[in-house]
Amino acid sequence: GCFPCDDFPHTSTPSHTHLTKMNAVARATTTVSASALRRGLGSKRFNPLAAAPKAVASKKAFSVQANSSKSDGPPLYAEGELDIYRESPLRYMGYSNEVGEAFAAFLPEWGVPASYGVAALYVFADTFDKGKRAAGVEPDEDQKTKRGAIVALDTLTWQMLASVFWPGSFIRCVVNAAAVAVAAAHLDSALGADVAKAIPTAAGLAAIPFIVKPIDGTIDTAMEMSVTKALNGRIEGAQDAGVAVATIAACLAVPPTLFSVASAIKAIGA
After folding, report:
1. At what angle do helices 237-269 and 166-184 cross, to 10 degrees?
2. pLDDT in the model for residue 77
3. Rounded distance, CA 124 to CA 121, Å?
4. pTM of the predicted model, to two decimals?
5. What is the pLDDT of residue 71?
């Protein structure tokens, strides 16, 4: 037989009034959430390009802020514009002479000087670029040539010290010291001549990442105290001038001093 339908539990259908209340609550919740979101984000609408600054920031991994970027006058690059000489892999051309110094044992006689030539080409290209840009952005037509020359000379001095001669002389000291240590430990007989020959090269290459930032920072400070200050007419009095001359003289004395030290170290193992 059949059971009366009232014997089974059933779900009641929501009334029209109940549905209206539910919709009102949902609308209120949505309005509150949207209002809170606007307060958190401000009045700006979402911009899918808002992540672009991250890309600009990532370029700074290569950045080397030479003093030419701090010189007086308008900025040389528009915001977000890539400086290929400071913020791209092209920057590593400036390290070619350090690599040449590290591989000195494996290169022909002209190999190390050639690596300095490659580094110099990079320096001259960056110098030309910065000087041309400085002249181009200078609003005073009568000052364009002067501004370009100031920035070019500033860039050339910084790069020659920080990218070429200081790091090159440091790496030569490291390589020669490692070669003397290998000879003193008679590693050529223990490890083989080829392996022993490669150890100074490995030491020189390993040292490069550790010397770049300290050298760059030191030259930055020295340039601000001397060449950059003088080029931009910020020398005030005899004391300022004396400090500037002494600072740049000390910077210029470091590479020949270190090259002499490297020669002395090599002579020990001869």
Report:
1. 30
2. 83
3. 5
4. 0.71
5. 53
